Amino acid sequence: MIEDMEESGTKQENLNNLLPVPTTSLEQYVAEISNYPVLSRKEEYELAMKYKKDGDLEAARKLITHNLRFVIKVSNEYKDYGTSIMDLIQEGNIGLMKAVQRFDPTKGYRLISYAVWWIRAYIQNYIIRTFRLIKLGTTEAQRKLFYKLRSTKLKMGITDEAPTPKEYKAIAKELRVPLESVIEMDQRMTSRDVSLNALVSRTGEKATYMDFIEDQAASQEELISSIEEQEKVKKNIRIAIKSLNDREQYIIKNRLLRHKPLTLEELSKELKVSKERVRQIEKSALKKMKDFLETRGITSPL
Known about the structure:
There is one protein chain. The chain is 64% helix and 3% strand. By secondary structure, the protein is an all-alpha fold. It folds into 3 domains: 2-131, Up-down Bundle (Four Helix Bundle (Hemerythrin (Met), subunit A)), CATH 1.20.120; 136-212; 228-295, Orthogonal Bundle (Arc Repressor Mutant, subunit A), CATH 1.10.10. A two-stranded antiparallel sheet has the order 1-2. The longest helix is centred in the C-terminal third of the chain and has 23 residues, at 220-242. The two termini are 15 Å apart. Residues 1-10, 132-137, 192-196 and 212-220 have low confidence and may be disordered.
């Protein structure tokens, strides 16, 4: 959830001030950011280390501005959802900023490989919040269906607003979801917006649409179920860690579970092995944990 991504503090507030505000036309904005070429791996690593170690805001600004073109590329994937492309870019920029804030250059991958998840998460959350004024996706499954339904219809050549029963069945089969879920989501996506205060006549009485809205708040049972599921995941992660050998446990705990994770260099000195060896052990341990969780029917958060 996006709410879980938010965190307070002066460091975040300072980073927020570095975000560009694309208030111009798309063409002008693209022309402006073309002045920031893609960074080399070495340049990116040095800037990221400056920000990570020293809190260098100028280094963070360069990391953000030189990766803005990638935000535009991702935003264009969502341009058909009836939302302003400039709004999508702005949301994606916030995701990029969050990625820069949390990026660990010592793990060996490029910033954009890590940032693309944050960029998509902020853009998708924005679309869900604003699409037709109604919250469409209340569960992870619904959110996935929301984004896959439109592309699947186009892929199958279904252009009518109201697909036939046969077409609905074909879509459900393609997406491997219940037919009822496809029909409900499609109807919600294609329905027009109306004012909740508009009058509607039912059983001869005057009333507004607001009078007939069902309470969509999660029930007590649903809240308890969600909490239990989260606890189940946490419990199995703890068990997965215990299934590792001592050195793997030590690396995982100090790389992923500490408030201030140790670097590869720090661990290599402690364990008297190379940084590359620490990275290999970490990668292998994560693979073992992921496999362990999947055997228990749990989607790995790792």
